[in-house]
Design goal:
Protein name (chain A): Large ribosomal subunit protein bL19m
Number of strands of chain C: 12
Number of helices of chain C: 11
Radius of gyration of chain A: 21 Å
Subcellular location (chain A): Mitochondrion
Number of domains of chain A: 1
Number of domains of chain C: 2
CATH class of the largest domain in chain C: Alpha Beta
Order of helices and strands of chain A: HHHHEEEEEHHH
GO molecular function (chain A): structural constituent of ribosome
Distance between the termini of chain A: 32 Å
Radius of gyration of chain C: 20 Å
Family (chain A): Belongs to the bacterial ribosomal protein bL19 family.
Number of strands of chain A: 5
Largest interface: A-B, 45 and 32 residues
Strand order of the largest sheet of chain C: 2-1-5-3-4
Helix content of chain C: 25-40%
Number of helices of chain A: 7
Structural class of chain A: alpha+beta
Chains: A alpha+beta (about 300), B mainly alpha (about 200), C alpha+beta (about 350)
Oligomer: heterotrimer
Pfam family, one (chain A): Ribosomal_L19
Shape of chain A: globular
Strand content of chain A: 5-15%
Chain lengths: ~300, ~200, ~350
């Protein structure tokens, strides 16, 4: 784990004020409700047509993707997978690992022998989740002192004290690496952000914000990746870039049934896994709900800045 | 270690899948590969039994199985599945066949939808392993005929008779030996007894 | 050519139905000539019978079986089940052993159909193959006779005697042959192998087994050189005055039938032993040689070990009744004689 933090108190306060304002604009709470209702109606329609009902247990896969094993048969081992799942549940009984997605804003407190209070808290937007089982990891990104900082955490790292979700939402893309080449305000979040608590039962909102990229040079060829969350990419592209993009397109890939199959865990296997872990996950969720309710009633909001 | 993709749900295929796909040597690369497989899958759905080289046949089999399982899972009112069928089946009427004929046929199936059988290799030809790929429940006669063994077949009659003959000869041998055995054993017994008595005496 | 002329002369006599004596002929016919003469007479008689059919009438044959049931319109007294098979496919032609008419009557593949009927083809893998097996065994015996006549040198006259009813459980098919010049012949292993090789050669010719019903007179005429057969013929013809003959290649023999369709349907085979049967010397026939063999139909795959068991068993003297029994009890004997000749 690499932690690179710079502290300069003066700039920090300025940044706080700025980011607070930005964050408010970036936040998407009110719009969410409408979208959600739309989705619900759509789902109802499709379900009417569809003869077979999908097992509700399978919905866990979005919130806990690390419980699914690596689809590559080279790395499959049913016993190891089972043991890992048991260990993961044990760890989840120790600390509360909340439900979050790429695009959510998290605050992670981790043991750090070199810092003053022996702990280190970092806030940032989750730009990537990867790995499965005990090796699951996520990366947080923030801009501190005009310097982009990314920290990669292991989800089941025993030195993690606390993982707090400040805002649960999804973005338009699965990976947000393009934030590295975007304007810094899109990945700047204040360290003293208040957690936003969604009303119970609402689906996870999708933040439709589109970021603006800085001019070239970029770290990757974003134009070739068919990203939804970038607004101004066209203005930086040369003619050659556009031609190359056309040449590099792979329109057949979405029809490559076996490629999809090799990347996923089939329903039958998933059902086994989820029916194995579901009851414990449910208990953990209930416990979390209780604690959040307490928090909403007890904690008085402190206004800063 | 990669995370499994969760955006899509697929049914498990009831056949062995190789960890890696085959490239199916082709000038046009992956696109040409898919084009080749489209032709084969179309042919399979159309003719229900085709003969192929093993590489292309096995790849096409996987795609055909996936296509049928998608069709069964989503039915014909699901737009993406319809798109998929349109892409994979080059002839329009086969899309109807897929949803109207094959889906009812395989809906309650517990085994794979297709079958791959090794084809005989012609002598003095190149070493290409041929296979026959077919949809289950096709109207053609079976390729592998399971003949129950019939006791009345001439080879079985002959072997049965030979077995009977052998047993009879053994039995008669034993019967012939019984008399001798009893004589032998009785004599040995008496000898033993004599020995025993002698020992006791001594 | 000389022989041909002689035969045509004979035929003339036959058609005139005049009396003739056969005594002279036996003297100068060698085995090979006798075979050819018989075959030629067979051809003539067959031709005559076909010409006698006269106006061609049609019959409807309803075929049952794969690929699908169908109705064939065939010629009465001319078309055979084999012709029906030719309408269907090559597979039917090659694999069919017997025809089953109306579900109960087993019919030779090369015997003309006489009336409208249903038709099924039977092969060695039929559900109830008893009749097929018997036909196979019978054919093997008949071919063993053909093999015996061909195998010896011209100096050794061969007179075929008879073969009994097919008994597959006895483990071997047999043919009793009279070899008058060989009084004490113990065949060596090499000689037995040579016999088997001759047998295989005959079978590889893949000739059809033709069937013909002839009158007693003609039959006597054909077998004039063979004293045993000419003794048996009146017995056989007692019931209806007809004798059933079969021809495979050149070889013509008496058998009640039915036989299989083609000699190519005989697969793995072995001539295993030649045993000597001796009897009383009243008739001048003191001994016969019993040729034994074992065979499997084509397409039957049997492990070499299993086949060696069958071969070992076929080497033992077959317990079928010897033709010499008649001396003790004339009545039983007659029956046997009948059976033997008709089988």
């Amino acid at each position: 784990m690499a932690v690179t933090l710079r502290k300069s108190t003066e700039l920090f306060t300025v940044a706080k004020w700025l980011t607070r304002r930005d964050c408010r604009t970036l936040s998407s709470l009110p719009e969410k409700a409408k979208l959600a209702s739309l989705e619900v109606t759509e789902k109802a329609e499709t379900s009417r047509r569809r003869p077979k009902k999908v097992n509700p247990l399978l919905e866990n896969r979005h919130a806990y993707p690390e419980f699914l094993p690596d689809p590559n048969p080279k790395w499959r081992n049913s016993l190891r997978e089972k043991l890992e799942r048991a260990d993961m549940l044990k760890r989840r009984n120790q600390i509360d690992i909340p439900e979050f997605y790429v695009g959510s804003i998290l605050a992670v407190t981790i043991a750090d022998p070199h810092s003053q209070g022996k702990t280190n808290r970092f806030v940032g937007i989750c730009i990537e989740r990867k790995g499965c089982g005990l090796r699951a990891e996520f990366t947080l990104r923030n801009v501190v002192d005009h310097q982009g900082v990314e920290v990669r955490y292991d989800l089941y790292d025993p030195t993690i004290h606390k993982i707090q979700v400040l805002r649960v939402e999804k973005r338009l893309d699965d990976k947000l690496f393009y934030l590295r080449d975007a304007l810094p305000e899109y990945s700047t979040f204040s360290f003293d952000m208040d957690p936003e608590i969604l009303p119970e039962g609402t689906p996870v909102p999708i933040n439709p914000v589109k970021v603006e990229l800085k001019p070239k040079p970029w770290l990757e060829r974003w134009e070739r990746q068919e990203l939804q969350g970038i607004s101004n990419i066209e203005q930086y592209l040369t003619k050659k870039d556009k031609v190359r993009r056309e040449l590099r397109k792979t329109p057949w890939e979405k029809y490559d049934l076996m490629k999809q199959y090799r990347k996923t865990i089939p329903i039958e296997e998933q059902t086994d896994i989820w029916s194995e872990v579901n009851s414990q996950l449910q208990q953990l969720q209930l416990a979390r709900k209780k604690s959040t309710r307490k928090r909403t009633f007890s904690a008085p909001k402190t206004q800063l800045g | 270690m990669n995370q499994a993709e969760v955006s899509k749900l697929v049914s498990k295929l009831r056949m062995n899948i190789k960890p890696e796909h085959r490239r199916l040597k082709n000038l046009k690369g992956p696109e040409g590969r898919i084009d080749k497989l489209r032709k084969t899958v179309t042919g399979l759905i159309k003719f229900e039994r085709i003969e192929l080289n093993i590489n292309r046949g096995d790849e096409a089999r996987q795609y055909a199985e996936r296509l049928i399982s998608e069709a069964i899972r989503h039915g014909d009112c699901h737009k993406p599945t319809m798109d998929m069928a349109n892409f994979w089946l080059l002839e329009k009427q086969l899309v109807h066949k897929l949803f109207k004929v094959l889906v009812p046929r395989f809906e309650n199936s517990t085994v794979s939808y297709t079958k791959m059988i090794k084809a005989p290799k012609a002598q003095n030809t190149e070493h290409t392993n041929k296979i026959v790929l077919e949809l289950r429940g096709n109207p053609y006669p079976d390729l592998i005929v399971k003949q129950p063994n019939n006791r009345l077949w001439i080879q079985n009659v002959l072997l049965d008779a030979a077995k009977y003959d052998y047993r009879q000869s053994k039995i008669s041998e034993i019967a012939a030996n019984i008399g001798k055995d009893t004589q032998l054993s009785s004599s040995s017994l008496t000898a033993n007894n004599k020995g025993g008595t002698q020992k006791e005496e001594s | 050519m000389k022989m041909k002329r002689h035969v045509t002369c004979l035929m003339k006599k036959l058609t005139e139905k005049s009396h003739f004596s056969t005594l002279q002929i036996t003297r100068f016919l060698s085995t090979q000539e006798a075979i050819e003469r018989r075959s030629y007479l067979f051809t003539l008689e067959k031709k005559r019978q076909i010409e006698n059919v006269g106006r061609i009438e049609k019959i409807e044959v309803q075929y049952k079986g794969i690929p699908k049931d169908c109705t064939l319109v065939m010629n009465k007294n001319i078309s055979t089940p084999y012709d029906c098979a030719r309408h269907l496919s090559e597979w039917h032609m090659e694999s069919s052993v017997l025809a089953l008419l109306d579900g109960n009557l087993h019919w030779d593949m090369h015997r003309p159909l006489t009336e409208s009927c249903t038709l099924e083809f039977q092969n060695y893998k039929a559900a109830e193959p008893q009749q097929v097996n018997k036909a196979f065994w019978r054919t093997c015996s008949l071919m063993l006779g053909a093999c015996a006549t061909v195998a010896f040198k011209d100096t050794v006259p061969v007179h075929l005697h008879s073969f009994p009813l097919p008994d597959i459980r006895s483990g071997s098919f047999i043919y009793d042959v009279d070899l008058p010049t060989l009084s004490d012949w113990q065949p060596t292993h090499q000689e037995v192998l040579t016999l088997a090789a001759e047998y295989v050669k005959l079978c590889r010719k893949a000739v059809p087994l033709e069937r013909l019903e002839v009158g007693e007179e003609l039959a006597l005429e054909m077998f004039v050189d063979n004293e045993h057969k000419s003794k048996q013929i009146p017995n056989i013809a007692k019931t209806n005055g007809k004798v059933i003959l079969y021809r495979a290649g050149n070889h013509v023999d008496i058998s009640r039938g039915p036989l299989i369709s083609n000699t190519a349907q005989i697969g793995r085979l072995a001539v295993t032993a030649v045993h000597k049967l001796t009897g009383p010397t009243e008739d001048g026939v003191s001994q016969l040689y019993r040729f034994q063999g074992v065979a499997l139909p084509k397409g039957v795959v049997l492990d070499h070990f299993a086949f060696s068991i069958l071969m070992d068993r076929a080497k033992k003297l077959n317990p079928a009744r010897s033709p010499f029994l008649k001396k003790e009890d004339p009545e039983i004997n007659e029956q046997i004689e009948n059976v033997a000749a008709q089988a």
